Amino acid sequence: MRTLSCLAVILFTVAPAWSHHGAGTFELTKSVSFTGTLTRIELINPHSWIYFEVKEPDGKVTNWGIEAGSPTTLLRRGLRKTDFSTGTEVIVEGYRSKSGAPRANGKTLTFADGRNFFLGASDNPASEGAK
Description:
single chain; five-stranded mixed β-barrel; globular; alpha+beta; CATH 2.40.50.140
């Protein structure tokens, strides 16, 4: 009975995390790539957000929000808020929002000078859920 209770607790705590961390929000089987200009960064828990403007082929500019790892995770990977100067051009790869909104779960961010940072919490978000 005790084992069954433990399994129930694990199930009820993991299921909400799974839907929150990508499986319910982002299309994890379809990668996207954007080139744009940084507008701001929010290093907040549980996920940081990076915002940038993307100029569409028709000239329309769309502001995109990219969900990234926690502030602590990004700091451990070498990303600092000072790296994100407004107007800096970046390339972001990730997984688009299922809702079609201009949001994505970030996988990598590459600066014009070639610095490349891993933004997510998993190398394989389709198997673990993007975090």
